[in-house]
């Protein structure tokens, strides 16, 4: 998909120069550290102006992939292309990439404006021009009024906004974000996540975002590449990943799911007497991934299974309860906050006939 930057009327130079982004391609990237192979032939195509997240658990290779793209690590095989050109042997400072990391890495002896302009000054941009462009970058992240402050006078969220402004001020072709929100508290994390997405859409800059947080990836991305043990399991839109996971790992990592046994006959699987469509064909005994919203609390009826509440959690507009069924399955069920359950309550569950992911039992 090709993304066009959002319309704008600002005289901000960064917005005026915004284009349609640069295509990024990973082609068969291999990487090992000693005898440990961390990337196994990674292929990924990011469209111009697209926001793609690399999502996966610690040690899956997502940060290594980003560092290979940035030129901070060399690959053992394969190629990285920017705008159709192989940059595998091009040094980091020649790749025209902006980067933001978990640590803010601001210079304590420089004020906000000077920190933001640092990359421009290193490139030989004259001081008045660098100051003007730094002001525009700070306006983009809402910090122009703090230009004279020093890092120790800023909150964590403000420092990370400065780091973002510094990454964007050089007008890079690609923006790389390596878990930039991990060190922030929950509320600030959500605010900055949404702000990063708004800025990315306004600039139309191709962006690769590395995170282990599924909520961040689901909320911000055009597409998500789910990684597992150095490989990409699935690349898809957030909605498709959640509703139609291609593998058991994707089903278990993206969103909350419970494993229950079922019997599959190709296109369908039977769970607790209810026939459910499968995302991909399977036969025989399978482990089925049920989302909390796949289950409903019902009265005693046909095709309802009895269970006992083991715990319940209040989540504001809803509750989530853990139920052990009479078949000894332990499942999460999501229900209205007004349905108050307690430990030991007997309940009945029904399964909604939505497509589910399953894996054959060896």
Describe this structure in words.
- This protein has 362 residues and is of the alpha+beta class.
- Among the domains are: 24-96 and 172-244, 3-Layer(aba) Sandwich (Rossmann fold), CATH 3.40.50.300; 256-360, Nucleic acid-binding proteins (OB fold (Dihydrolipoamide Acetyltransferase, E2P)).
- It is built from nine helices and 18 strands.
- It has a six-stranded mixed beta sheet with strand order 6-7-8-3-9-10, with helices on both faces. A five-stranded antiparallel beta sheet has the order 13-17-14-15-16, with no helix packed on it.
- A hairpin with a 2-residue loop joins strand 9 and strand 10.
- GO terms for molecular function: ABC-type quaternary ammonium compound transporting activity; ATP binding; ATP hydrolysis activity.
- Pfam families: ABC_tran, TOBE_2.
- Residues 24-254 form the ABC transporter domain.
């Amino acid at each position: 998909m090709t993304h066009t930057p959002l319309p704008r009327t600002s005289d901000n130079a960064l917005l005026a120069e915004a284009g349609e982004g640069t295509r990024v391609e990973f082609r068969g990237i291999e990487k090992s550290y000693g005898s440990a192979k961390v990337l196994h032939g990674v292929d990924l195509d990011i469209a111009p102006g697209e926001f793609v997240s690399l999502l996966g658990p610690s040690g899956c290779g997502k940060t290594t992939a980003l560092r290979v793209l940035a030129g901070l690590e060399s690959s053992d095989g394969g190629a990285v292309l920017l705008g159709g050109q192989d940059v595998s042997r091009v040094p980091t400072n020649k790749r025209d990439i902006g980067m933001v990391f978990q640590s803010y890495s601001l210079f304590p002896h420089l004020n906000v404006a000077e920190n933001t302009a640092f990359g421009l000054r290193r490139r030989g941009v004259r001081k008045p021009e660098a100051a003007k462009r730094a002001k525009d970058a700070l306006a983009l992240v809402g910090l122009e009024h703090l230009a004279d402050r020093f890092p120790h006078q800023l909150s964590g969220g403000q420092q990370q906004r400065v780091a973002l402004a510094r990454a964007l001020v050089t007008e890079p072709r690609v923006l790389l974000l390596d878990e930039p929100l991990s060190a922030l508290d929950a509320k600030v994390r959500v605010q900055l996540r949404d702000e990063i997405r708004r800025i990315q859409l306004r600039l139309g800059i191709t962006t690769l975002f590395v995170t282990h947080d599924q909520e961040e990836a689901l909320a911000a991305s055009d597409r998500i590449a789910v990684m597992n043990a150095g490989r990409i399991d699935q690349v898809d839109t957030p909605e498709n990943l959640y509703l139609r996971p291609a593998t058991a790992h994707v089903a278990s990592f993206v969103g909350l799911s419970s494993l229950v046994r079922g019997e599959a006959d190709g296109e369908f699987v039977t769970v607790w007497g209810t026939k459910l469509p499968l995302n991909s064909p399977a036969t025989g005994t399978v482990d089925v991934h049920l989302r909390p919203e796949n289950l409903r609390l019902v009265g005693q009826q046909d095709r309802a299974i009895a269970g006992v509440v083991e715990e319940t959690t209040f989540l504001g507009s809803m509750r989530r309860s853990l139920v052990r069924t009479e078949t000894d399955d332990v499942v999460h069920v999501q229900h209205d906050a007004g349905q108050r359950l307690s430990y030991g309550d007997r309940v009945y569950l029904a399964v909604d006939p939505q497509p589910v992911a399953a894996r054959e039992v060896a």
